[in-house]
Amino acid sequence: MAETLRRVLNLGSAAGPGKNTAEAEPPLLLLGGPGSGKTALLFAAALEAAGEGRGPVLFLTRRPLQSLPRRTGPALEPLRLQKIRFQYPPSTRELLRLLCSAHEARGPAPSLLLLDGLEEYLVEDPGSQEAAYLAALLLDTAVHFSHRVGPGQGCGLIVALQTQEEGGDSGNALQLALLQRYFPAQCWLQPDAAGPGQCCLRASLEPGGLGPREEWWVTFQPDGEMTITRWPTQLVDTSSHKGSSSGGQP
């Protein structure tokens, strides 16, 4: 779902004509350390998808958002907010149960499936087998929704994962490498120089073979307002990103 996130980072404008539909796009893994703006970008992606005139957006997270991120790109229009369905599975077991029961759910199928805080569910069963099972079930659920939505539409999938500090647990590195096999498209958020009271990040989007890597500056002001500036066009070596296990530092 790199195109949805790209529109958010481009402040609502598509990168160009003839872009792939959600059905053709690979699932995306949003990676960054604590407080790197993953939830804000997920919410902005939800607002963007909710304004496309397709199905609702399913937003899964362990706990309710404490506040709505300010100026996340798409407007906080009531009609868009009404199309975002929040669900709060409190444990891995409940998350698995929710995903398995999605095949029996009635009503319009979601056009976008979002999961915030994947690491909070993986910590309960940190083995690679459990991570692979959860990732496969997320992909299977998105495929099922895509079949219900119909040809040419599809249901996208974006999952946010908190990365570890450099030199962290080797098990987390193996887990990340495994997840990257299921999520070929990735967006890395890494800290950048910031002014007083600001949080400045560098967002690097790799669309999983469907286009070149792109980058932006994302700045959060002290009041929570998010501003985005496109990184100057340049050729970037992506080899350091592939299979990175350095805790979110591409």
Structure at a glance:
This protein has 250 residues and is of the alpha/beta class. 30% of the residues lie in helices and 21% in strands. This is SWIM-type zinc finger 7 associated protein 1.
Characterization of this structure:
With 250 residues, the chain is an alpha/beta fold. The protein has helices spanning 2-9, 38-50, 78-82, 92-101, 118-122, 128-149, 170-182; strands spanning 28-32, 57-60, 84-87, 112-115, 156-162, 185-192, 199-206, 214-220, 226-230. Strands 3-2-4-5-1-6-7-8-9 form a nine-stranded mixed beta sheet, with helices on both faces. Helix 1 crosses helix 2 (38-50) and helix 6 runs parallel beside helix 7 (170-182). The radius of gyration is 17 Å and the shape is globular.
Q: How is the topology of this model organized?
A:
Layout: H1 2-9, E1 28-32, H2 38-50, E2 57-60, H3 78-82, E3 84-87, H4 92-101, E4 112-115, H5 118-122, H6 128-149, E5 156-162, H7 170-182, E6 185-192, E7 199-206, E8 214-220, E9 226-230
Parallel strand pairs: 1-5, 1-6, 2-3, 2-4, 4-5
Antiparallel strand pairs: 6-7, 7-8, 8-9
Using only CA atoms, what is the Rg? Answer: 17 Å
SSE-based structural type: alpha/beta
How would a crystallographer describe the biggest sheet? 9 strands, mixed
Order of secondary-structure elements: HEHEHEHEHHEHEEEE
Side by side, the strands of the main sheet go 3-2-4-5-1-6-7-8-9
Poorly predicted tracts of residues:
15-21, 235-250
Task: Assess the beta-strand content as a share of residues.
Answer: 15-25%
| Average pLDDT level | 82
Q: What is the CA-CA span between the terminal residues? A: 20 Å
- Share in helix: 25-40%
Q: Please tally the β strands and state the result.
A: 9
**What kind of assembly state do the chains in view correspond to?**
single chain
Shape: globular
Specify the number of helices: 7
GO molecular function: single-stranded DNA binding
InterPro entries: P-loop_NTPase
Organism: Ovis ammon polii
Protein name: SWIM-type zinc finger 7 associated protein 1
